[in-house]
Amino acid sequence: MVRSLYTAATGMKAQQLSIDTVSNNIANVNTTGYKKQRAEFADLMYQVMAYAGTSTSATTISPTGIEVGLGVRTTAIQKKFTQGNYKETGNTLDVAIAGDGFFQIQLPDGTTAYTRAGAFKFDENGVIVTADGFPLLPQVTVPADTTQLTIGVDGTISVMQAGQTQSNQIGQLELANFINPAGLHSLGDNNYINTTASGDPVTSQPGLNGFGQTRQMFLEISNVQLVDEMTDLITGQRAYEAGSKAITTSDEMLSTVVGLKR
Q1: Residue of 49, 66, 75, 100 lying closest to 203 (CA atoms)
Q2: How far apart are CA 136 and CA 60, in angstroms?
Q3: Quick one: which of 157, 166, 232, 255 has the most CB atoms within 10 Å?
Q4: Helical spans, DSSP H, in the chain
Q5: In this structure, how many other beta carbons lie within 10 angstroms of the beta carbon of residue 24?
């Protein structure tokens, strides 16, 4: 009976983590470029009371054995990098990636970070930056007399300047991708950095080598499906309640055993 207390407790802890993960997904349902997460679990080791295949008589063996499970543990929280829906914004510096790849940005310490959130801005010098002021890589500076800025599906950045009749290319977007995007480390603020698990970044011009194309005046919104998350939330809640009930039942059984001595 004591075993059941600890086993049920591991289940409650697992369901709490699952609910925490679902809650984070729901909180970011409108976050640009957010990728949903999923908690994954595995059963713990088993207490073997009788091995399958052991003799039960001179001519028979146990077909199944007796193994008592000891609960559950968390194995991973998996990021799901499926394509999110697109939202047309009409903003010149909003760029979505249609397909695989990440924008590259430079953090204040010089580290290169990666993001799917393409809501870019200008800083005071005309450099294209994120909402936090981190410059896009390769860095692009837009002339002050620009009257029109165009970003092609291949990532080329062109501007029309005052007094000119033809546009000039001033930069080129470059995307990065990884053999295992799920291994990226989340920094928050829609940013990731690579790890040993993700592998080193592979860069390319948009639209080439299996990389996605860029779409100006669009943003990629979260890939969270609210209906799925609400279903998972209810499932996790019911499983948590069941684990709590198992602990209550085990406690009542222990109380009964203790009462037998009186």
Answers
A1: 100
A2: 71
A3: 157
A4: 2-27, 226-259
A5: 15
Q: Hey, what are 120's tokens?
A: 């870019």
Residue labelled with tokens 């990532």 = 155
Residue 251 token pair: 């406690």
Give the span between the Cα atoms of 123 and 216, in whole angstroms. 19
> Is residue 148 exposed (0-12), middle (13-18) or buried (19+ Cβ within 10 Å)?
exposed
Amino acid at residue number 118: G
CA 70 to chain centre: 29
Percent of the chain with pLDDT over 70: 99
Distance CA 58, CA 72 (A): 37
The SS3 of residue 188 is: strand
% of the chain at pLDDT higher than 90: 79
- Amino acid identity of residue 235, one-letter, is T
Q: Are 81 and 114 in contact (CB under 8 A)?
A: no
Mean per-residue pLDDT over the chain, rounded: 93
Of the CA atoms within 13 Å of residue 177, those in its CB half-sphere come to: 16
Q: Are 39 and 17 in contact (CB under 8 A)?
A: yes
Q: What is d(CA 173, CA 225) in angstroms, rounded to the nearest whole number?
A: 30
